[in-house]
């Protein structure tokens, strides 16, 4: 409870899929229709995120309290603490009035999502807030469909790995799984391609950018991308 008999609102993490507006669950649709406040990742330069675009297809923004949240893209701990604090407090302003808040996120709210940190910090600062999540279709699953490949069958093992410049860690990830989905691959694309060539797997990697969205781009042979720059929302699938 908060204030004079006002029940604290619930914070929902709502996965709205990887980009295709039709890849939203019935429950996610109901949640964004019912919640009086819809929070979404807001781009600093004014463009709309996929999550924002999808939501506006299903609700009238004029009938909702639309809460755009900016998430800091920095590793500076001072800036991170300050900006994340602002984000949590923006949600709390609605929650403490008894309003449910649906935070919409691309993919799934519990898989490499900004909702994870938002929920963790909300629990620390305002533990009285109920928090729940609505699963969504991940870009990982969207990529498998776009490429028409299976991720795992029978006893096969699949890994979902953030691509980094740690060559040995990436080598081990490839060695220990039958299929590997490397997310955030754009920043280390060429080193990843070099590693795959060293391992004799140069022809086993595909790349998808902005999967399932109207802007989707697909390369079945990732070697075509050597020396090129990719969009941030790109992932690589290595299927041995």
TrEMBL record:
Family matches, as Pfam families: TP_methylase
Pathway participation: Cofactor biosynthesis; adenosylcobalamin biosynthesis
GO terms (BP aspect): cobalamin biosynthetic process; methylation
Keywords from the named record: Cobalamin biosynthesis, Methyltransferase, S-adenosyl-L-methionine, Transferase
Classification via SUPFAM superfamilies: Tetrapyrrole methylase
InterPro entries named in the record: 4pyrrol_Mease, 4pyrrol_Methylase_sf, 4pyrrole_Mease_sub1, 4pyrrole_Mease_sub2, CobI/CbiL, CobI/CbiL/CobIJ_dom
Family: Belongs to the precorrin methyltransferase family.
The name this protein goes by in its record: Precorrin-2/cobalt-factor-2 C20-methyltransferase
């Amino acid at each position: 409870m908060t204030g004079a008999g006002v029940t604290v609102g619930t914070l929902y993490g709502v996965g709205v899929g990887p980009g295709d507006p039709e890849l939203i669950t019935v429950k996610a649709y109901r949640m964004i229709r019912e919640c009086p406040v819809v929070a979404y990742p807001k781009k600093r330069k004014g463009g709309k995120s996929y999550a924002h675009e999808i939501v506006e297809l299903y609700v009238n923004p004029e009938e909702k309290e639309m809460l755009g949240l900016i998430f800091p893209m920095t590793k500076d701990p001072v800036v991170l603490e300050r900006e994340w604090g602002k984000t949590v407090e923006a949600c709390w302003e609605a929650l403490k009035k008894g309003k449910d808040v649906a935070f919409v996120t691309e993919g799934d709210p519990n898989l490499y999502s900004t909702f994870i940190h938002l929920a963790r910090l909300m629990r620390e600062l305002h533990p009285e807030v109920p928090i729940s999540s609505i699963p969504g279709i991940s870009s990982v699953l969207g990529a498998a469909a776009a490429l028409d490949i299976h991720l795992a069958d029978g006893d096969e093992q699949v890994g979902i790995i953030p691509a980094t410049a740690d060559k040995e860690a990436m080598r081990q990830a490839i060695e220990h799984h039958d299929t590997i989905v490397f997310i955030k691959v754009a920043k280390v694309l060429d080193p990843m391609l070099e590693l795959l060539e060293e391992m004799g797997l140069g022809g086993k990697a595909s790349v998808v950018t902005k999967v399932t969205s109207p802007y989707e781009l697909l390369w079945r042979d990732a070697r075509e991308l050597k020396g090129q720059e990719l969009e941030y929302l790109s992932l690589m699938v290595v299927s041995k």
